[in-house]
Request: fold
Amino acid sequence: MAKTWVKFLGNKTICNDFSLYLLDFWLVKSSQNIIGSVTCCPGCFSIYRGEALAGVVDAFSQPPQSAFQSLVMDHGEDRWLCTLLMRQGWRLAYSCSAKNSTHCPETVGEFLRRVALLRSNSNRAFLNIGGAIGF
Reply:
């Protein structure tokens, strides 16, 4: 365990990635939860009601018909699922007491690819759900 923390603290890329998670989860998702609904529940850290998924499984399983849909549906599938759920009227909640873990990029290139993906998915998600949540 101690070796893991030494590796973590000694790697600026991992520290930077960790700080982005802190910002996203402790600030952004907490704020979204207060105003009504979280816009993206990260796939592996999420639990959904079967009843909610049953209402969107057909739309979620449709293949993309355009390049834009491919970006939205395949590269941001967790956001796409959340968008579909919110369009059906479900409220997505965030719990700060949940426990989770993830792989952190260890190289600058891997880190930059992840940041670019997260940012582009956030922008597309806002365009998709803006009307659904009143913007």
The two ends are 46 Å apart (CA to CA).
